[in-house]
Amino acid sequence: MTNSSTQTLRAINLEASERELHKKTDADFTEVKEAIVEGLLGLTEQKCVGSSPEGDVMLGARPSSKLVSGFLLPRYDQAGEDDTSDIHIATMGMDLQVHSNQSGSIELRPQLAIYVRELPSWEEISSPDNDMMPPVQLSRETRQRVEQRARDLIQEQIGELPATSGR
After folding, report:
1. DSSP alpha helices (H): ranges in 80-167?
2. According to the model, what pLDDT value does residue 64 have?
3. Model confidence at 1, in pLDDT bands (50, 70, 90)?
4. At CB < 8 A and 24+ separation, what contacts does 108-113 make?
5. Which of 8, 89, 141, 159 makes a 20 to 30 Å CA pair with 19?
6. Is-contact 151 144, C-beta < 8 A?
């Protein structure tokens, strides 16, 4: 939870709060727990399918590495061969759960997102918020030479320090 005046996070003990409420009013937090779960599921779904603002721009990863909305089996032609190619998506689908004794209609509103790969700007690469700065990985031999050179320079500088009197 956030405190709107200071915008700091604070936690509460739901179990203790529920016990206290139950003592006073004989009620419980069942609906509160359901609302929390519903909210978490909604946030998870938005994140997985890219419908949240976090799905608008993805830095440092392919959309398929960050978004998952489902897995569908490929469509097969009459010869039993996979009819899917890189430019032809042959399978689309949806899972529904309906009550067997009910009738009605279902309205579908498909949406499409196209992700365009762009090279990031230097500001995007160097920003610590995006965690995209490539790590420097020296070979073992180069790293050992750099470390030895650093030790040599330190020893040179130590040798040039004026003598101190020991107290």
Report:
1. 122-126, 140-160
2. 67
3. very low
4. 111/51, 113/50, 113/55
5. 8
6. no
Q: Kindly state the average pLDDT of the residues 140-148.
A: 95
Tokens 């020893």 correspond to: 155
Residue 34 has pLDDT above 70, yes or no: yes
Q: For the chain, state the CA radius of gyration.
A: 30
Distances, alpha carbon 154 to alpha carbons 24, 143, 157, 165, in Å:
71, 17, 5, 21
**Phi/psi of residue 140, nearest 5 degrees:** -60, -45
Q: What's the whole-number mean pLDDT along residues 130-154?
A: 91
C-alpha distances (whole Å) from 60 to each of 45, 67, 101 are: 21, 13, 49
pLDDT at 13: 85
Q: What gap in Å lies between CA 69 and CA 45, rounded to an integer? A: 8
CA torsion sign, 21 to 27 to 33 to 39? negative
Is residue 59 within 8 A of residue 120, CB to CB? The reply is yes
Longest dimension (CA), the chain: 97
